[in-house]
Amino acid sequence: MQPDFHPVISATGLFTPTESISNAELVGSFNAYVERHNAANAAAIAAGEVEALQPSSVEFIEKASGIKARYVMSKEPVLDPATMEPRIAERDDDEMSIMAEIGIKAARQALDRAGRDAADVDAVLCAASNMQRPYPAMAIEIQQGLGIDGFAFDMNVACSSATFGIQTAADYVRAGNARSVLVVSPEITSGHLNWRDRDSHFIFGDVATAVLVEDSSIAPTPHWDILGTKLKTVFSNNIRNNFGFLNRADPGSRDTPDKLFVQEGRKVFKEVVPMVSALILEEAERLRIDPAKLRRLWLHQANAGMNRLIAQRVLGHEADEDESPTVLDTYGNTSSAGSIIAFHLNSDDLEAGDEGLICSFGAGYSVGTVFVKRHA
Ligand code: COA
Q1: 255 FRET partner, CA 20 to 30 A, in 10, 201, 317, 332?
Q2: Domains and CATH numbers, the chain
Q3: Catalytic annotation on 159?
């Protein structure tokens, strides 16, 4: 008979870029672009042929999203009103790619924290909302960079990539196909953000996270038992990015707005909050967990208002910062990495037996829940 395997989270890792952009810097650059655009098109605007662009504001950004700053891999060109996108030099094929580089930094921290030798890891999943190239998989480059003998592949479920990766890793462990799996999420979201779009230019930031999922028999102390995972997807066009290999032939396509991140933010807000809350409550019931007793929620970091509502529906009262910590104020929305950063930075203080929830949601739509319990 096959032995019982129990997947746990052994450790997490975080890479944070050195450069950060404050809302004031971001709005200063955006408004300089608006002024330039409106001055260059003054006659057409006066004739009613071109619409004047409207300025952005720090107050709006903070009130609508809760974001105060974001880290980026390439600050100066993003803030240059003539460029307004990251400029990350292409590397030769024999150099390590940038996504692998930052993914490895986060992964090494997770391995160090777990006291795990990379040679003892069996698999690597690179779970992120954008891959730098279609193949060879980013995950295989990360595997090689770490010196792991096993298998690796990429997966993309947009903002839910990391939690979907955790369930996938947990399933490998449960099935006995791997004992130690790294889920790495390098998110260079600044490359898919339309920095010229007033409605969304403030949203994203860059980062990389890693989660080491292992069988409890080899896990370090302390670790986090995975009590249960639940995933859900429902198709929606309300968060969309049409960039892809079939539109490469059009030289202008990279700059057309639909080839970057586009969203109907209001609809996302209204439709995703009930979907996420319902999934969490259903899964808590299935696991016989009283949601009101969850010690901490590590929620996806897209919008402070969404998190406030979800936490309230789950806990039955308004959550304080200790119950539902925020990292989007300093990191912005880091796509799939957000809930993992929240967990990484705000979990060491929990005690054995404390239960909590890692939860992501976003494009697809997609929702992923990972209920965990601190194990001494
Ligand atoms: N500066 C100043 N004003 C702005 C602005 C900016 N940068 N962007 C928009 N506005 C204005 C709008 O023009 C609008 O003005 P009006 O009322 O005169 O028409 C007003 O602010 C409200 O705009 P709206 O887009 O409805 O804002 P919102 O309150 O819905 O907030 C989001 C926008 C995107 C922050 C919010 O909808 C959100 O976070 N939704 C969820 C998004 C999400 O989680 N996405 C997942 C991504 S993976």
Answers
A1: 332
A2: 224-375 (3.40.47.10)
A3: yes
